[in-house]
User: What shape does this take?
Amino acid sequence: MSSTYYVMAPPDLKDPVASPHEADRLVLVPDRFSWPAFAFSIIWILWNRLWLVLLGYLAVTLVLETAAAVTGGAAPMVAGLAVSILFGFEANSLRRWSMERAGWRVLGLACGSDETEAELRFFNAMQNKAAGKAVVRETPAPVVRLSGIIPRIGTERVVGLPLGQETSR
Assistant: This one.
C-alpha cells in the first residue's frame, strides 16, 4: 500500500539536491492516520514541539470532558475517544501547519510504500528535473471489458422501477 508524504524544507534551505547535508535537512511528513498521536496524544504533541496545538488540544479536551461530565454516564469516555480519533486523523496535518508557521515550505509530494521509498522517488524526480530530463510517467492500461454484455435501457420493470422511458401500458 502506498502512502503520500509532504516534503518539507527548512526556511534557510537553498538547494536540496546540491549536497547530502542539505538533503538530510528535509523532513517527510506522512499524510495518514497517526497511531502514536491517537494513543499518546499529549506525549506526541510534546515530542513534536507543537505548542499551539497543545494549547488547542487542552482547550478542546477540557471543554468536551466538562460537558460530557455534566451529561454523565458513558459520555466522558465517548468524548475522550472521539477527540483521540479526530486528533489521530489530523495530527500530521497539524504538524505540517506548525512547520509552515515556523517558515518551513512544502517542496512537493512523494509517494511510496514507506518513507525511504518516497524519499528515493522524490530525489530521483528532483535530480531529473535539475538535469533537464523529462519525467516519465506510466500511463494506466486501458479498461477492457471481459464480457460483451452491455446493459440496455428499456421498458422492463425491476422491482417495480422502470429502467428508462416508459411507453404505453
